[in-house]
Design a protein that fits this description.
The chain is an alpha+beta fold and 297 residues long. Helices cover 43% and strands 19% of the residues. It has two domains: 167 residues, Jelly Rolls; 108 residues, Homeodomain-like (Arc Repressor Mutant, subunit A), CATH 1.10.10.60. It is built from ten helices and eleven strands. A five-stranded antiparallel sheet has the order 1-8-3-6-10, with helices on one face. A four-stranded antiparallel sheet has the order 2-7-4-5. A two-stranded antiparallel sheet has the order 9-11. It is globular. It starts with 26 loop residues before the first strand and ends with a helix.
Length: 297
């Protein structure tokens, strides 16, 4: 169970495809530090349930269309399939833990327990609070199991992990309420974000124009740019650069491609611009970033 800062890859169709844990036991705990290891995590989604637990500093967590701050001891809850992004609040440091697991670790999809408690969260017909405050009744009930998973991560057995996850889900299911926009009636803004993430992931190595992605999402260029900025707090151009740089960081950490090859594979046709943009976002050049990652154990 790795706890070094380790950014999972956001790959096909905008979906994060790294297996958290293993296929047989899909559970993992990661520690993240922003901006030391990664400046921010762009919009993405995955099949796992995710808990983001603030250790120090302050984070900014965007889930679907809502952004919430995260203070020390607080927990953000991200259900399977929810579009989300992670960033440090302001220019400060944000230290946090990710707990990721698949519902299949606890129950088979055809079981009565899965259908009754987990399926409504997985299919979007029920929702839970996005942010759980430390000293709230829900936070106090949740904290014992959440921090057991984190603080005892080197000692926990498979049975202990499952016991804690059952406790987490019991607490969250009791707090669940009918979704405001259940599956089948997906909010148009959520659909816009999902379409944007999917389109960018399919085409990020290519030249992407606002006209092309606007047409894909069914908007005029001006309406798309305004709506995207209103929903994310950033321009589409900035998001696209951030997305491409994150792809580049993944390749720097896990491939043998040269910096020039990585720049080209990630949609940068100017290597000097790529190096400047990467250095501005990550604080070090691509070459230094790769070297530091190899010494970070």
């Amino acid at each position: 169970m790795s706890i070094r800062p380790d950014a999972p890859a956001i790959l096909s169709d905008g979906q994060e495809v790294k297996v958290h844990g293993s296929e047989a036991f899909p559970f993992a705990v990661y520690r993240g530090i922003m901006p030391t290891f990664i400046p921010a995590y762009p919009l993405h989604y995955h099949e796992e349930m995710e808990l983001i637990c603030c250790e120090a500093g302050c984070g900014s967590i965007t889930i679907d269309r809502k952004t919430v701050p995260l203070q020390p001891g607080e927990v953000a809850v991200i259900l399977p399939g929810q579009i989300h992004a992670i960033a440090a609040e302001g220019n400060g440091m944000f230290s946090y833990y990710n707990i990721l697991f698949r519902f299949s670790l606890l129950e088979l999809p055809d079981s009565e327990t899965y259908r009754r408690f987990l399926a409504p969260l997985a299919d979007g017909s029920m929702e839970v609070p996005a942010r759980i405050q430390k000293d709230s009744p829900l936070g106090r009930e949740l904290s014992e199991n959440v921090w057991m998973l984190i603080e005892k991560r080197k000692e926990n057995t498979a049975l202990r992990i499952k016991a804690c996850l059952y406790g987490v889900m019991d607490t969250l299911c009791k707090a669940a309420t009918p979704a405001r926009h259940p599956t089948g009636g997906e909010h148009r803004d959520t659909r816009l974000l999902r379409q944007t993430v999917q389109y960018v992931d399919r085409h990020y190595p290519e030249k992407i124009t606002v006209a092309a992605i606007s047409a894909e999402c069914g908007y005029s260029s001006s309406h798309f740019m305004k709506r995207f900025h209103d929903l994310t707090g950033t321009s589409f151009a900035q998001y696209l650069i951030h997305f491409r740089l994150e792809k580049a960081a993944v390749l720097l950490r896990g491939s043998r491609y040269t910096v020039l090859e990585i720049a080209a594979r990630c949609g940068f046709d100017n290597a000097s611009y790529f190096t400047r943009a990467f250095t501005r976002q990550y604080g070090v050049s691509p070459t230094v970033y790769r070297r530091n990652d190899k010494t970070d154990v």
